[in-house]
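User: Please predict structures.

Assistant: First:
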Amino acid sequence: EEIIVYCARVSNPKNQDNMETAPGLLKYCIKHKHWSIFEMADMCIEIKTSRAIAQQILRHRSFNFQEFSQRYAKATEFITYGARRQDLENRQNSIDDLPAGDKEWFLESQKKVQKDGLALYEQALGKGIAKECARFLLPLNTQTTLYMKGNVRSWIHYIMVRADESTQQEHREIAQKCKKILSEQFPTVAKALEWSQ
């Protein structure tokens, strides 16, 4: 935050170290859409998620990413998700009102796919098949780790877009955790954005 405030006052060098009025300055910059000052500081977050959700995150091209490579390391962890009904009026929405039996079927089906996929993956590795080929046997809910680095402006935009109700729930939960981390690391920025912790 000190870097953001310092750079924001580039035209007022005698006042650049003044952090007392930083909340008002950042609030003013947000109100008047002076977003470039938020590009002066970066943040990197480690995210553990599934390959399916990672694909959505990787679409945010203003970030730099480093991801667990299934070409070189063995994948063995999975993330099991709950089921929701497809919203017939909004294809980007799902509704959590499925019968308990259908939800249980979905969980058990994921476990079966995970078990079968992992067994075939292990067999492939046992046959000497390269990890980069064997990984094609793994389901989309195979766990991956991402390092996501971007400037504060990119994080603000990502959180505003992905913490929104229109985002898939599993991705929205990640964005909400990112918002919490940003709010802890940049409390003055969070206050200026009127983000409650």
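Second:
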Amino acid sequence: VTQVLNPNPGVFQVGLPYNSFYEYVFDGIFNSQDEIDKSPAQPNSGNLKPGDIKIKDVNGDGQITPDDRVSFSPFPKYTYSFGLNAGYKGFTLSAFFQGVKGQKAQVSLWGWDPFGQGAPPLTRFLNAWTPENHSQTTPAVYVQGYPGVVGYQNTYSLLDASYLRMKNINLSYS
């Protein structure tokens, strides 16, 4: 982006890629009410309970404000492709692969949140936070739309979308 007539910090900002993600940084899971009380006020402070996600105070001012959001590019760091050709006694095998590395994708709602549209929780919730299991990667099981986890954009649901796929494969004999 080289010029913006109506600035929208982080998303349409000079010097950043078009349509960048501008989000709070996921910093683990709250394990106790005491930990919540001692942490900077989170974006939805009134609703927090142990097992909810914690947001990082990026600028270190003791408060979680819009200034703590960080910009992430939606574009991959690089794209690549390669081919394979091999032959033996009249048989030929060829394949073509293509992929990207470093791409980010925001996921939410159906297929990510537990119980969305009646779906059961994903297998990642087998290790979800409980009072006995203080997971720092998966919050306590919640209902779709619960503000303690999904009430604001954060990097908990910003996933690596890198991939490698086989686009073509051919086995022949002559």
